[in-house]
Amino acid sequence: MNDNLFQKVEKKTKINKETILSLANRLQNGNMKDKDTLLDVIDELSTLTGKEVSQEKKEKIVNAIINNKIPNNIENNF
């Protein structure tokens, strides 16, 4: 990923590149299909950004990841 994407994400979320890479490493070494792991990451991101994520939205996110319903190019979301 290029620094431009990290800058866009940091500007929008206030989460720096190092934190993003740390979370990515944690996910890469973890199980992306494990509901508990995904919920932990969602909670951590929620805390980092100061944005509350409802239980319903958490379930939608987890189900999308587990069922491979995530867009291939997430850069367009920022």
Outline of the structure:
This protein is mainly alpha-helical and 78 residues long. Helices cover 65% and strands 0% of the residues.
Dominant shape: globular
Number of helices: 4
Helix vs. strand class = mainly alpha
Oligomeric state of the chains present here: single chain
Helicity level:
55-70%
Strand content: under 5%
**Average predicted local confidence, pLDDT:** 84
Poorly predicted sequence stretches spanning 5 or more consecutive residues: none
Largest sheet: none
What string, H for helix and E for strand, traces the elements in order?
Answer: HHHH
Radius of gyration: 13 Å
- End-to-end separation in angstroms reads 13 Å
Describe this structure in words.
The chain is an all-alpha fold and 78 residues long. It is built from four helices and no strands. The protein has helices at residues 3-13, 17-29, 35-49, 55-66. The model has no long low-confidence stretch (mean pLDDT 84).
